[in-house]
Specification:
The chain is about 40% helix and about 35% strand. The protein contains three helices and four strands.
């Protein structure tokens, strides 16, 4: 069972202040290609897995933004670390 839920919001800054949605889509693609469980929400994406693996994905997301030409990236992160195990469903099942 996963030990962490991490919600991440990437805010890329481009030189010409282009629309950031294609950059955000590229960041979400990094998550998707990792194979971990995740959910996209309007203001952030929540991932489920081992903390070290998820932090590594966040690093790759930031590197992808720079690779695509971003001057810098603001990354906002929320972490729930629960060594005994945690899932997104555990926190949201009563609302479904």
């Amino acid at each position: 069972m996963a030990n962490s839920l991490i919600s991440v919001q990437i805010i890329p800054k481009t030189e010409k202040y282009e629309d950031v949605i294609p950059f955000v889509d590229a960041a979400i693609k990094v998550i998707d290609e990792s194979g971990i469980k995740y959910e996209v929400h309007p203001l952030e994406t929540t991932m489920e897995g081992e903390m070290s693996e998820l932090m590594n994905i966040i690093t790759k997301m930031n590197e992808k933004m720079v690779e695509l030409g971003c001057v810098n990236v603001i990354t906002q992160v929320k972490i729930l670390y629960q060594p005994s195990g945690i899932t997104m469903d555990t926190l949201t099942e009563k609302y479904r």
